[in-house]
Amino acid sequence: MRALTWHGKHDIRVEDVPRPEIVNPNDAIIEVTATAICGSDLHLYHGRVPSMREGDVLGHEPMGEVVEVGSGVETLDVGDRVVVPFTISCGSCWFCQNDLYSLCDNSNPNAELAREVMGHSPAGLYGYSHMMGGYAGGQAEYLRVPYADVGPVKIESDLSDEQVLFLSDIFPTGHMAAENADIDEHDTVAVWGCGPVGQFAVQSADMLGADRVVAIDRVPERLAMARDHGGAETINYEEEDVYDRLMELTGDRGPDSCIDAVGTDAHGTGVVATSDRVKQRLNLEDDRPTVLREAIRCCRKGGTLSVPGVYVGRADNFPMGPLMNKGITVKTGQTHVQRYLGPLLDQIESGNIDPSFVVTHDAPLEDGPELYETFNDKEDDCIKVVLRP
Amino acid sequence: MATQHAAREQRDSHRAQSDSGTATDPVMRGVQLVVGTVLLVRGLGQRSVSGTVTALGGAWLVSRGVGGPSGMKRALTGRNDGSSERGAERTAPPETDVHRSITVGQSAEDCYDAWRDPDTFSRVMGHVADVEAVDSDRSRWTVHGPYGQDASWETHVVESEPGELVRWETPTDAVLPNEGSVRFEAAPGDRGTLVTLSVSFDPPGGTLGDRALQQLDIVPEKLAGQALGRFKSLVETGEVPTLEKNPSTRGEGDTV
Ligand SMILES: [Zn+2]
Ligand SMILES: [Zn+2]
């Protein structure tokens, strides 16, 4: 089958690989009809995520039609149309039973490796390095889905692929980011990063009752989208000082909640950001915590910092003192996608939100390699790419 | 990364120079080599990914020594390290002890029953050896060497208390003499059963195998951790997570 594969920094190819097969009783195979490129795929594209191997199949935002089910699968049948969450979760362990699906104890076949690095292994993910499970991803014609009764959500209405596809990751991820921000009425919420996750965080913060949402980025189209679709006020950090502007907007109190929807590859400006980039290149530092530093500086005393952005290792110059002395609560984690599938599908079906507004590019899988480049360079107003295998 | 590599090469070349190529009973040594090599291969397989983590992620794992390809070469050629600093270990190879626990979200009785199920071992230990039930108390373990040589040994259960423990031993003349036990007790916080696996064995291949294991210092513990993780998954979900047939440009399946 055709698949997008990783061959190192800035080297994505479209190649023939073997077609996946059922190997465990709770597996299903889906024929992928639509699959997206995620902002976190760019961390792989930049070679920032450890334990990738040459030839790995990428992608963790797929949907499609069930073409085969294992003997243990009860809720899915051949022909069902499903969206597949990027977190692989067994449904039976203590974490899954407590709705902490992205922390599943059983789904990572390379759990010992993750344990060595992190102390414990989180859930396995599709197409996101061997430490995170080693599972082939969904930017391919077919995908093997383990624990098929736990992850995939059936789409029984006639909603289009691009309306439901983002249930696989970015819609729930933006939503959990807003939930983790502990929003009360009268609150001001600041969102760093107006990529797709940031856009959904803006929308969900509004849905959860924020008085005001402020979106921060440097790309004019992305800021415009946050204004037009999310009703956010915006700050272009290349034009204005973020701290000064946020203090102006909040009577010098700072935003009650701050959301870092950027993660490890933040651009930032100034000397410290440059130093981060150099250290990262020399492998002295894994993450560039530019946004974290700024968010901690801006956040209201006693406020909340929510981090959906992906980090991979260690970050230097992390302002632990300010974080502690300002009494800030930090909430983070990969998204417990399965927790949100039902409620967010309801939101889409009832017409409260149409997630397809983020799509700027829709193309055949074969165009994948060049669209990774377009997306990475933020050329052609690219915000979200959907690929059709 | 570059520095680390250089240091490793230097160390390996130093070791290669001090190799003296001693030999004992060739048949026994051949069998022991199979076991040693298999453990080495398993370990290196895991280590190659750890190595990638080190290379890409910085200094996470730098403190742990990595046995390079020359370790494999020595294993395959059967050359022993004759350097004097290892003389003490040659005369008295240390016993290796492994001890790991995991919490399984089922009752001690269910865990015990699963452990005693003849199918369980082959599924849980499949990454180390083929395990075949001879009868309810005896299992035959076989490891396959890279060139078609097999080595096998038997374990037999010497003590078992339903819901509490199972203890086993090998005959003393086994290729890989070992004894072990698994204990089941209530996990803290009423979260199921704490399963504790303890294994002691004489490293295979005498000094050579001992060194192979030392170079892969964490491997026995890692293998035990993997086995327990697989056991937990089997009991909690009815299956073991796997990358069998996992597609990539490299082909089907991933060995780690
Ligand atoms: Zn994603
Ligand atoms: Zn689970």
UniProtKB/TrEMBL annotation, chain A:
Its cofactor is Zn(2+). Coiled coil: none annotated. Transmembrane segments: none annotated. Residues 196-265 form the Alcohol dehydrogenase-like C-terminal domain. Residues 25-153 form the Alcohol dehydrogenase-like N-terminal domain. Keywords: Metal-binding, Oxidoreductase, Zinc. It comes from the Archaea. InterPro entries: ADH-like_C (IPR013149), ADH-like_N (IPR013154), ADH_Zn_CS (IPR002328), GroES-like_sf (IPR011032), NAD(P)-bd_dom_sf (IPR036291). Belongs to the zinc-containing alcohol dehydrogenase family. This is Glutathione-dependent formaldehyde dehydrogenase.
Automatic annotation (TrEMBL), chain B:
It holds the Pfam family Polyketide_cyc. This is SRPBCC family protein. PANTHER family: POLYKETIDE CYCLASE/DEHYDRASE AND LIPID TRANSPORT SUPERFAMILY PROTEIN, POLYKETIDE CYCLASE_DEHYDRASE AND LIPID TRANSPORT SUPERFAMILY PROTEIN. Residues 1-25, 67-95 are annotated as: Disordered. Residues 105-213 form the Coenzyme Q-binding protein COQ10 START domain. Residues 1-17 have a biased composition (Basic and acidic residues). It comes from the Archaea.
